[in-house]
Amino acid sequence: MKILIQNGRIIDPANQIDQLGDLQIADGLIQPTSENFEPQQSLDATGLIISPGLIDLRARLREPGQKHKGTIFSESRAAAAGGITMVSIPPDTKPIIDSTAVVELIRQKAEQAGFVEVAPLGALTKGLEGEQLSTMGALKSAGCRAVSNAQNPIHNTQVLRRAFEYANTHDLTVFIHPQDYWLKDGGCAHEGAISTRLGLPGIPDAAETAGVARDLVLIRSTGVRAHFCGISSQQALQMITQARKEGLPITADTAIHHLYLTEMDIGQFNPNSHVIPPLRTERDRTGLIEGVCSGAIQALCSDHQPHDDDAKAAPFEETEPGISGLETLLPLTLRLAKEQHLPLIDALATVTCNPASILGLQSGTLSPGAPANITLFNPDTWWTVRADQLLSAGKNSPFLNWELQGRVTHTLLNGAIVYEAP
């Protein structure tokens, strides 16, 4: 199929392009501009922004293992509606992604659904139990671009060191969720005045900084390439920033909700504000925003975790953590650019070419010859987040009833239109 996208504002952060123009697509690839191009279909992008498809570094699709919360079909369809063309999923599925069979199963189901590409992360240890190393070489051969132990702790520092060394041998990036298991101690909210007033067990920011400190020591000694996931505290970010200045091969992301919400948003025990790592202080929120604007945080992600109603229908500390975030990632990124006077091209880099680079992919770009993974969106359209309008099976969003600006009109995957706004 030959498609011509006309008269749009093309923003391609990878190539520092921000200009009005047309985009030509054939055979699933972006084509060099040619006067002889004869399209079979044309899309009028007047008033729209043409961007590389978004790449979400952390989204749980709930399949295999928890189909009552969502499926690869339902969640990848929601991703496409949000302008996302690739999602990276942590290895804590059921069964765990520690074998090539599970990798192949997920890829097959994603291909059958046909909405987005899926990049599974392989398990760092067998069963994520933190005791024996996984078969990282086989996982890489099956298509895993990185390995992780998700939020499962590795208590034995020697095992963690060996895992880093083994990953480095296979040239694999390790995705790290920094957390001291004992300092977390079953907490569900940021340790501070709010958790004390509400009587909730707290998680101090020291749980994150202690984890970062241990991990940095081992990264320095092993030379492994590492990516810190879901940074939530200003102090942890400062430690990572300093280590980058010293030359350590590390990157970092934060979940988009940490740029908008704080411990105050727990309110009257709002279960949709129960996330791990927890919502922290206004100072932390401000520090993370500054980190995005300065480039200390390279990527933003949805940290999508859809839940059924029962998972959030309990006392706050007994509810399951996580939010449904695929469909709000783009508008919240656009809002960040507007509120912080961050150039739009830089904001879009955090959800396109930067996560692609972290995964070691030559994607997230509109360069000729690149896969035609594209999102078209109207940056001026206002819409209200409503549960009955979310395509995700999970309606557990803390942004319900928020009015957001920026709506996807079309999403293309390998040159095929996989989402078109009604």
Account of the protein in words:
This protein is α/β, with parallel strands linked by helices and 422 residues long. It has helices at 72-81, 100-113, 136-141, 157-169, 181-184, 193-198, 206-222, 234-245, 282-294, 329-340, 344-349, 353-358; strands at 3-12, 17-26, 29-31, 41-44, 49-52, 54-56, 84-89, 117-120, 122-123, 146-148, 173-176, 189-190, 202-203, 226-228, 250-255, 299-301, 374-384, 403-413, 416-420. α1 (72-81) links the parallel β6 and β7. Strands 1, 2, 3, 4, 5, 17, 18 and 19 form an 8-stranded mixed beta sheet that branches. A 6-stranded parallel beta sheet has the order 9-10-11-14-15-16. Helices cover 28% and strands 23% of the residues. It has one domain: TIM Barrel (Alpha-Beta Barrel).
Topology summary:
Blueprint: E1 3-12, E2 17-26, E3 29-31, E4 41-44, E5 49-52, E6 54-56, H1 72-81, E7 84-89, H2 100-113, E8 117-120, E9 122-123, H3 136-141, E10 146-148, H4 157-169, E11 173-176, H5 181-184, E12 189-190, H6 193-198, E13 202-203, H7 206-222, E14 226-228, H8 234-245, E15 250-255, H9 282-294, E16 299-301, H10 329-340, H11 344-349, H12 353-358, E17 374-384, E18 403-413, E19 416-420
Parallel strand pairs: 1-4, 1-5, 6-7, 7-8, 9-10, 10-11, 11-14, 12-13, 14-15, 15-16
Antiparallel strand pairs: 1-2, 2-3, 5-17, 17-18, 18-19
